[in-house]
Specification:
- With about 290 residues, the chain is of the alpha/beta class.
- The chain has ten helices and 13 strands.
- A six-stranded mixed sheet has the order 9-10-11-8-12-13, with helices on one face. Strands 2-1-5-6-7 form a five-stranded parallel sheet, sandwiched between helices. It has a two-stranded antiparallel sheet with strand order 3-4.
- Helix 1 links the parallel strand 1 and strand 2.
- Helix 8 packs across helix 10.
- It is globular.
């Protein structure tokens, strides 16, 4: 990213919850990637006026303004697909927090639209920029897996807003796919106690070499946000991730990847591989939902 910014891309941030607030902060930071971006305003369903001296603008103005070239979609997951479609139709590039859509068909349609419009569509996956993931990648490389499991616990999550658990938890699935290659789905079950706000999704996956991988998402009141993993290899086992360095600036690192795409610095091969991985994970999530909710 050492190119002198010849032009700036005007940006609007849609949704100013946790992710949107971090994005606004990063866009105003002195980071090299921010030099290519010009924060024009934010869009919110709430009337907020301005935040950190950034003005609120209407969705209509964001879509029609020639000064806006890019939309960061940071709203709840259930609205992602609709916002992406509107901004692509209006000829804007899009960065969206995962998952880009709550169905495989929706995501495929959005990629096709981005291609047709000649626009960048970038789905954020900050979990792949975390120190823990970098550690796991180093540990896994060159080893032959026998079996593994990844169990994630957290507080309750509203499915209407965040989608079926296989979609809201797609970052964990993405870890497994990036570590062990494309996976196939063996079985999936969902245990739900709505009155207790409790749910447990148990998924059995297989690697290309038929090694079993289990993925569990468990959410309910009083459950702490935690990741338990266990990978058994021919050459030993990995049962925890050490407390590695703090995950600093992972959203900024993601922004840097996005800017490289805007500047045409990412190869077609890398873009195609990323797109294939994203659609593979969404396809698995879709299959899991169909097994759990036939």
């Amino acid at each position: 990213m050492n190119t002198e910014p010849g032009r700036k891309f005007g940006v609007v941030v849609v949704g100013v919850g946790r992710a949107g607030s971090v994005r606004i902060r990063d866009l105003q930071s002195p980071h090299p990637s921010s030099a290519f971006l010009n924060l024009i305003g934010f869009v919110s369903r709430r009337t907020l006026g301005s935040r950190d001296e950034v003005p609120q603008i209407s969705l209509e103005d964001a879509l029609s303004s020639p000064e806006v070239h890019v939309a960061y979609i940071c709203s709840e997951s259930s609205s992602h697909e609709d916002y992406i479609r509107q901004f692509l139709q209006a000829g804007k590039h899009v960065l969206v927090e995962y998952p880009m859509a709550l169905s495989l068909a929706g995501a495929q349609e959005l990629w096709a639209l981005a291609e047709q419009k000649g626009k960048v569509l970038h789905e954020e996956h900050v979990e792949l920029l975390m120190e823990e993931f970098a550690f796991l990648q180093k540990e896994v490389v060159g080893k032959e897996l026998l079996k593994g499991s990844l169990h994630f616990t957290a507080g309750p999550l509203e499915e209407e807003q965040f989608g079926f658990p296989a979609f809201s938890g797609i970052s964990r699935l993405t870890w497994l796919v990036c570590l062990f290659g494309e996976l196939s789905l063996a079985s999936a079950t969902l245990e739900e106690r709505k009155e207790d706000q409790y749910m447990k999704m148990t998924v059995q996956l297989e690697t290309k070499n038929k090694c079993p991988l289990s993925w569990i998402e468990e959410k309910g009141p009083g459950l702490k946000r935690n990741r338990y993993l266990s990978f058994h290899f021919k050459s030993g086992s990995l049962d925890s991730v050490p407390n590695v360095a703090v995950n600093k600036n992972i959203f900024l690192k993601d922004q840097e990847l996005f800017v490289q795409k805007l500047l045409g610095q990412v190869s077609e091969k890398d873009l195609a591989a990323e797109r294939r991985r994203i659609l593979h994970c969404l396809g698995l999530a879709e299959g899991i939902r169909q097994l759990c909710r036939p």
